[in-house]
Design brief:
The chain is an all-alpha fold. The protein has 7 helices and no strands. Helix 2 runs antiparallel to helix 3. The longest helix is centred in the middle third of the chain and has 37 residues, at 88-124. The protein is elongated and about 65 Å long.
Length: 172
């Protein structure tokens, strides 16, 4: 594999690693919000209007934005019964085919749909009307296309690694 492609793979992997590390810090405001809600509700009989909405928005963001980091770390679910016993070449071929046939088409479609979902919410200044707090929702919906972009980038890196394994019989 040309050195320029290896550099590209390392660059994309570093984007996923650093974005994952940054996104991991979202757990702190989520936990702080939950602790505040529990203390306010049970110690002072003063539940908040915003804690539930903030918690599920942050948890959803945490979950979605961390998907590229999880892919880079090989943390997504895989059926290893057969795969683990295959040679790196066969693993690379299967992975490359699966990325080309299933991963990229599905994520590209989801990225397009999620961008429209975000854009409409942004233009309308959409809010969650079922909540008394009525938070704006477009930042939460903006997480979806951002997560798809990160995941597509990392998927491209994984595809290149799979192609290398399929051709050379070894993983990078």
């Amino acid at each position: 594999m040309p050195k320029s492609l290896i550099k590209l793979i390392r660059f994309i992997d570093n984007i996923s690693i650093w974005s994952g590390k940054i996104i991991a810090w979202l757990i702190l405001p989520m936990v702080a919000g939950l602790v505040y809600e529990v203390v306010a509700r049970y110690m002072f009989s003063a539940p908040t209007e915003w804690a539930y909405d903030m918690t599920y928005m942050l948890y959803g963001s945490f979950f979605m934005l961390g998907s590229a980091f999880t892919l880079q770390r090989k943390g997504h679910i895989r059926t290893d019964i057969l795969y683990a016993n295959w040679s790196p070449r066969r693993q690379g071929i299967v992975d490359a085919v699966c990325y080309a046939l299933f991963f990229f088409p599905g994520l590209i479609a989801f990225a397009i749909v999620s961008w429209d979902f975000f854009w409409v919410a942004l233009q309308r200044g959409e809010r969650i009307v079922t909540s008394p707090w009525m938070p704006i929702v477009y930042p939460f919906k903006g997480v979806l296309p951002a997560a798809m972009l990160l995941l597509l980038l990392q998927g491209f890196s994984e595809f290149l690694k799979s192609m290398h394994a399929a051709i050379k019989g070894e993983w990078l």
